[in-house]
Design a protein that fits this description.
- This protein is an alpha/beta fold.
- The chain has a domain of 220 residues: NAD(P)-binding Rossmann-like Domain (Rossmann fold).
- It is built from 10 helices and 11 strands.
- The strands form 3 sheets. Strands 2-1-3-4-5-9 form a 6-stranded parallel beta sheet, with helices on both faces. The protein has a 3-stranded mixed beta sheet with strand order 6-8-10.
- The longest helix is centred in the last third of the chain and has 24 residues.
Length: 326
């Protein structure tokens, strides 16, 4: 598919991944990109979805929008995470089909995999067990996009594809401690502890769990490549194929943040899934995607971005307010 002459709707296009994807699409010559904002478009309501398609008539839909968070946020909001993600995906794909959208790109989550899937995770293992309990409602809701895509392809000949990105990181990530994922949460924790002169930080779990991370710009490229070149029914992993323990991750982040204190593990808190590492061969074979960002380089860029963003916020807060009074 030649994307440059297509009208593309990107849900979640103003978010962390979406911002980078929109930039990637523009570099590919796309000029007609629609980015609905959540404040005006609550995609859990059917009439809103209907109106969005009626008013914009997209050729391609890339569905990134999601209600997401780390382990704590998932534990606190399992019902909301399940319902909002399930209903958004179902409504968006159904009305894309009804209005004649040429292609629907459903972006799922690594949380859809079974808790004890063999490592590296292969797409064929998706149905071999139940997801890790702390994020299962979210993972299963996003997994239903795959079921819907395959069912619609079978019955209606609808061109919907399903991608499975691993955990993302990079500049522009969410650093809110109430909803952030592991890398931004640890960066913020280390920087704040250093600034306050604290002698230790407390980290959830045992440190033994492993994760794989994909730099956000690489993920954006993978999604754009798949949108251009992949039209199959099979789900496809998007990852870096680099696995790291949480203990080693914390050590790296502490070094980049120049925090030299002690790391204390709170083993009363969950580790989450024991291991995460994807088999990324299908993405390479089907549409030529291979992640290219070195993990240390990407991690350093993320820390540097956040340091600069915090400095700008602090400077704005300290600046005297102007007054028209004379």
């Amino acid at each position: 598919m030649e994307l440059a002459n297509k009208r593309i709707l990107v849900t979640g296009g103003a978010g962390f991944l979406g911002t980078h994807l929109v930039e990637d699409l523009r570099r590919r010559g796309c000029r007609d990109i629609i980015v609905p904002r959540r404040a005006e478009h609550d995609l859990t309501h059917e009439q809103v979805v209907k109106d969005l398609y009626r008013d914009n008539r997209p050729d391609v839909v890339i569905h990134l929008a999601a209600v997401v968070g780390g382990i704590g946020a998932n534990q606190a909001n399992p019902g909301k995470f399940f319902y909002d993600n399930l209903i958004m995906g179902a409504l968006l794909m159904e009305h894309a089909r009804r209005t004649g959208v040429d292609k629907f790109v459903a972006v799922g989550t690594v949380c859809a995999y079974p808790k004890f899937a063999p490592t590296p995770f292969k797409e064929d293992n998706l149905w071999d067990g139940y997801p890790e309990e702390t994020n299962a409602p979210y993972g299963l809701a996003k997994k239903m996009l795959l079921v819907q895509a395959q069912a619609y392809r079978q019955q209606y000949g609808f061109n919907a594809i399903y991608l499975l990105p691993v955990n993302l990181y990079g500049p522009g990530d969410n650093f809110d401690p109430r909803s952030s994922h592991v890398i931004p949460a640890l960066i913020r924790k280390c920087l704040e502890a250093r600034e306050k002169g604290e002698s230790e930080i407390v980290v959830w779990g045992t440190g033994r769990a492993t994760r794989e991370f994909l730099y956000v710009e690489d993920c954006a490229e993978g999604i754009a490549r798949a949108t251009e070149a992949y039209d199959g029914a099979d789900p496809v992993n998007l990852g870096s194929a680099h696995e790291i323990s949480i203990a080693d991750l914390v050590t790296k982040i502490a070094r980049f943040c120049e925090f030299t204190g002690k790391i204390v593990w709170d083993s009363s808190k969950p580790d989450g899934q024991p291991r995460r590492k994807l088999d990324t061969s299908r993405a390479r074979e089907r549409f030529g995607f291979v992640a290219k960002t070195d993990f240390d380089r990407g991690l350093k860029a993320t820390v540097d971005w956040y340091v600069q963003a915090r400095a700008k916020t602090t400077a704005r807060a300290a600046a005297p307010s102007s007054s028209l009074a004379q």
